């Protein structure tokens, strides 16, 4: 399945693949060439999908998924994927663990439409800034971990110099 580009391709390794209109949970793992869920976006896609987790699918872009509540991404946060998050209006939980990906900031407006977001976990080692727009007032849990460059940038803004932990 390494060559899989879309879930609705007609045939993969002799096996026919169909889209599931009642699918609630989808886990995509180690699909280096997958580009999208469907070749052609049509109507209301995946109307029941409430939980989506992605692990090492670096080329994946997503359509609008209005019923999505829980979204987790490990090892493959790309800008296209991050931009699509703003369309997930029902999202309540978001996990972004980019591994060694070079995400330094979030796309403008990424969090604007996430009015139901209650839990946000971020581990993006290269992240340098948080979004300019405020987070949702419904936010109950916020975890920022392993964002070493973010801490350094915040320290520089506050104190006007580079912080070196070994200067203690």
Automatic annotation (TrEMBL):
This is NBS-LRR resistance protein. It comes from the Eukaryota.
């Amino acid at each position: 399945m390494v060559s899989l580009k879309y879930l609705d391709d007609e045939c993969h390794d002799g096996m026919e693949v169909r889209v599931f209109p009642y699918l609630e949970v989808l886990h995509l793992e180690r699909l280096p060439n997958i580009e999208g869920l469907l070749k052609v976006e049509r109507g209301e896609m995946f109307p029941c999908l409430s939980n989506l987790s992605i692990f090492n699918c670096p080329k994946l872009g997503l359509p609008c998924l209005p019923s999505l509540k829980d979204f987790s991404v490990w090892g493959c946060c790309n800008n296209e994927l991050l931009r699509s998050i703003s369309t997930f209006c029902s999202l309540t939980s978001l996990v972004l663990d980019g591994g060694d990906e070079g995400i330094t900031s979030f796309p403008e407006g990424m969090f604007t439409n996430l009015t139901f977001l209650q839990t946000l976990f971020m581990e993006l080692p290269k992240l340098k800034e948080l979004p300019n727009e405020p987070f949702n007032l419904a936010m109950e849990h916020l975890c920022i971990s392993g964002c070493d460059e973010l801490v350094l940038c915040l320290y520089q803004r506050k104190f006007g110099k580079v912080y070196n932990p070994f200067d203690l």
